[in-house]
Amino acid sequence: MSPCHLRVGRWRHTEESSNSASAGKSCVPASASCASFYVTIGSWLLSLYVFPAMTMQFISHRFPDYHDPTIEDAYKTQVRIDDEPAYLDILDTAGQAEFTAMRDQYMRGGEGFIICYSITDRQSFQEASEFKELIYRVRHTYNIPLVLVGNKIDLQEFRQVSRDEGMHLAQEYSCPFFETSAALHFYIDDVFHELVREIRRREKSLPQAEGKSKSKDSLWQKLKGSLKKKRESPS
């Protein structure tokens, strides 16, 4: 069977959490994230310190001590999921304004989305609850692979969103749900692997002609190029 080629993007929500600061943790954005695989994880979706952190834990099994929100990062990795290879191209837009401006195009190019919020930040959960409608407005279909993630379960003492609330939202979205800790690498791999499975299920349910799109590949590369060009240009 041919490899499953995925791209990942992210929706970010910048989280200013006094609780996190008092706990000795860096204030980080919560991610509501978006994916081709989009880890779209922001207010503008999917995720900022937490979500680069999720990606770094998945790719290299390490938690970053620092994240520069002005830097766009791209990651590529190959993994085996259910005995099938999957190639992941992950773009971390770091909440740049250009990402917001290109949001609709970015969503059109995504094959799947990780919608991520912080369990210590109710605002990020409220934004996550609106994200599916945002995808529908752009894609005109609810048949999009999604995974809902509540991050920061290592900070239970600051929890503002219950597990039951997350499960209820996942039921509304008809998608898998995980609570994770990017800091402790709890269930991070499970999230990415399950999104790949969701994308594969959708691809198998579509006519073969819709399975892969050169236009989506072109759009994805164009978005990455635009963000990289902006990053390298003098301020």
UniProtKB/TrEMBL annotation:
Highest taxon above the source species: Eukaryota
GO molecular function: G protein activity; GTP binding
GO BP field: signal transduction
Region feature (Disordered): 204-235
EC code: 3.6.5.2
UniProt xrefs under PROSITE patterns: RAB, RAS, RHO
Biased composition (Basic and acidic residues): 204-219
Alphabetically ordered keywords of this record: Cell membrane, GTP-binding, Hydrolase, Membrane, Nucleotide-binding, Transmembrane, Transmembrane helix
GO CC term (a single one): plasma membrane
EC top class named in words: hydrolase
Compartments, record wording: Cell membrane
InterPro entries reported in the protein's UniProt record: P-loop_NTPase, Small_GTP-bd, Small_GTPase, Small_GTPase_Ras-type
Catalysed reaction equations from the record: GTP + H2O = GDP + phosphate + H(+)
Sequence ranges of Basic residues compositional bias: 225-235
Membrane-spanning residues: 35-54
A Pfam match: Ras
SUPFAM superfamilies: P-loop containing nucleoside triphosphate hydrolases (SSF52540)
UniProt keyword Membrane, yes or no: yes
Family named by the database record: Belongs to the small GTPase superfamily. Ras family.
NCBIfam families the record matches: small_GTP
Protein name: small monomeric GTPase
Record organism: Varanus komodoensis (Komodo dragon)
Taxonomic lineage: Eukaryota, Metazoa, Chordata, Craniata, Vertebrata
